C-alpha cells in the first residue's frame, strides 16, 4: 500500500472515531437531560399553582398572606400524595390564572373552574374533578315560588340574566332546554359585573341570575357586601352542584395523570367532603345526587 493511501485511511479512521465519540457523548448528555426532566421524590419537580386571590372562600389569601380556600386546600392535599412534585402557590387575578396557565407561566390554576368544551380546546382538564360548586338562582324573595327553579322559570316565562357561553352554567341551561319544554330563553353575554346582575333582578329587569352560593353570601348576606342593601329583596335557591376542576397547561399530561390518581384517593377517604364542610359549611359533594330541575 502506498504511503499516501495509508495517510488517507488513517485520517478517515480518526474522523470516524471522533464523530462516534461526539455522537456518544451527545446522546449521553441528552439522556441525562431527559432523565433530569422526569419528576422523582429525590429531585421533585416544581409546580407553580396559580390561584385567584379574591374568591373567598374558594380561593383567597388569608391574614398571613398565604393561599387559602377550598381549591387551595385540596391542592395541598394532592401535594402530600405526590412526593415527586413540589407545589409553589402564586396568588394572582382571575384573568392571570387563565392567561398564565395557557402560556405555561403556571403549570396549573384553580378558581372554581367548570368544564366546558370551549375551555378544553385551550387547556388540559383532568379526568377527575376535585370539588363541587353549589349553583342556583338568585331571585326576588317575593317571587321565589314563581322563578326559584329551572322548570318554574321556564313555565312562568321568566327572564334569565344572560350567561357567557364558556361558563359551565350555560351548559346546564342548554342541557335542560334539550330535554324539556317550555324552554328557558338563554341569552349569551361575554362579561358583566356581578353587582349589576343582582340589581337587575331586584329591579325586575330580569327574574333570575344563575350564580353560586359563595358569591351571593359575599355580595348580599355580608354586612359589608357590595349589595348588602338588597338582602331583604333577594333570595338564593340551590338548584344543584357543578363539578369543579384544576386547569392544567396542555403540556402537563404526566402531572395531570398523577393528579387523577391522587384526587381519587382523597375523595374516597372523605377528606374532600371534610374540607367542603370547613370552607362552605356543607358537603357540596352531596349535591351531585340531586339533578338540576
TrEMBL record:
Ranges of residues in domain Solute-binding protein family 3/N-terminal: 46-283
SUPFAM superfamilies (UniProt xref): Periplasmic binding protein-like II
InterPro entries noted in UniProt: Solute-binding_3/MltF_N
Segments traversing the membrane: 7-26
Gene3D superfamilies: Periplasmic binding protein-like II (3.40.190.10)
Keywords: Membrane, Signal, Transmembrane, Transmembrane helix
Listed name of the protein: Transporter substrate-binding domain-containing protein
